Automatic annotation (TrEMBL):
Enzyme nomenclature, EC number: 3.1.3.96
A UniProt-annotated Pfam family: HAD_2
SUPFAM superfamilies referenced in this protein's UniProt entry, alphabetically: HAD-like
Entry superkingdom: Eukaryota
Keyword S-adenosyl-L-methionine: no
Protein name: pseudouridine 5'-phosphatase
Keywords: Hydrolase, Magnesium, Metal-binding
Amino acid sequence: MLRISKCKMLTPTNRYSFCRVLRMRVTFLLAKLRGIIQLPRSTMEKVQSCISFQIRPKSSMMVFKMGKSFLRTLPSVQRRTCCNELDRKKQQFGKVTHVIFDMDGLLLDTETVHEQCIGAIMKKYGKVFDWQLSLRILGASEKDGAEILIDEAQLPLTVEEFIKETAELEVEQFSRCNLMPGAERLLKHLHHCNIPMALCTSEREEYYLLKTKNHQQLFRLLNHRVCVPNNPEIKRGKPYPDCYLACASRFPKPALHPSQVLVFEDSLNGTLSALRAGMQVVMVPDSRMDEDKRRLATYSVQSLDQFKPELFGLPAFPSSSGHKYYKTCQWQTSEMIANKQTETSFVIRQHWKTIAESVSSLIGFLQLSSLDLPCLDCVVKSKVEMNANAKFPPVTHVIFDSDGLLLDTETVHGECINEVMKRYGKQLTYDMAALIRGRPQKDGFQFLVEEAKLPISAEELIQLTDEKEKGRFPESKLMPGVERLVKHLHKHNIPMAVCTSEKREYYNMKISRYTEIFKLMHHATCIADEKQITRGKPHPDGYLFCATLFDPPLPQANQILVFEDSISGASSGLAAGMQVVLVPDESLDKSKYPKVTCSLKSLLDFKPECFGLPPYDD
């Protein structure tokens, strides 16, 4: 029940107005959430029936001020698609300052020509070029695409022969390429508003010149271009991030952060490349592309004509206001109404708890425990001990922390820090150790310097501790249950990864005795060495970045199971919208546990079948 008791400080008229506005704002928030996560109508009615308003004595002015700024204090909710005109106008993604375009299939209508030429070559050898093959090579470099086609279709050609045959068919037609709808309008608008733009393509320079022959005036508006095959310093093409990182670095004044760069792509490989570079992506996919692949992008539109620059903090088109604005976005409204399964993005899962707490802090407390919120069950779940009957939403991918979870390194780490602190008459308490556990090294050591009032800087503390640790880390042992679990998941083809706050140098040093186990991981993300990750645990950035490195199709957030031993690490996984199994130190105060999916005393107690994974054989 939400209560605000009577107060003399507000007149009846003001009290009525305030309550009316407050009720409207709560209703608007619930409606907004319902549009994003498909809350049942009965749930909304149940929440609204719990709300009654009375003004509490001596606190009305504080509550009134909180109510006045209520919408401004709510976290911004990013969504990949809109479900009505009001949400579309309000929706805001991270502000961008620079823009990078792909070329083929996005600015120029070349993909049809490319597909026809490849299809003709494959038909010549009795093979069929279908959409699935097309999707795999879309956006890939010329050489990588040729290798995929030759391997998949078993063509009796070398890569060089295939490229040569394709080029001979394409040369004549590429000079007649037309611009894609909306391309000219968008490029001219961004140039007029002094937004730095560039081009990043997997095409060779000579083909770029051939394709843009009739559109030179438009392509001169771009600050620079990166043709991947002509840049030997770019070792890997799309879907790796190298080309977009290189392209972004060549602006005269590069963006302060990769997330301030907006990439336009039409291919899955290109989208993955930009996401792995830490950039935002607007996808303009082929109409045949599956919906789950479109959801990988920050935002998806059917055509560049439908892109709204203001959603990313860019100047709006002159005609994108008023009645015309609502008219142009009706296509998506009707589409979303027709599609009853509105998608749930990573970000709404990340912020649901914060939104609920914002409502609670404003007008009392909201009894959510009695409500039916099945779609959020895996995000905000009370911690439980695992047993044979426990059932959680099924997962498809697994991410492990390293220190203290897979490897017994926390004891060594704590002992080395304590030895350094003793030189200055200080001691590492258990509470201090628990608070720095899982956090990036720099953040954790800065906390120790301030908390213990050490007469040295965080950098000096790191250096002294590192000197002691280097000789001891190679002796680290596996934690109980690790080998059995990792080998079991690998046997059943469950994709696994490691996400650690450690530097790559120290990570490799620690796992040196167990390379056979750690080779079973798909990849390892060392947050300290990833330039794209600007915030470590407990922020979600590390786990979200790690998830994008899995092979496509990428999983939804709640289909990823995170194993953690630290409070900050578990909070990071939860903030990313993932399910979290906490295996904490026995001496950790249970009252400090975050609301993880479940907690275990040891990995030996984990039951894979509780998360829809294959059970152990024994």
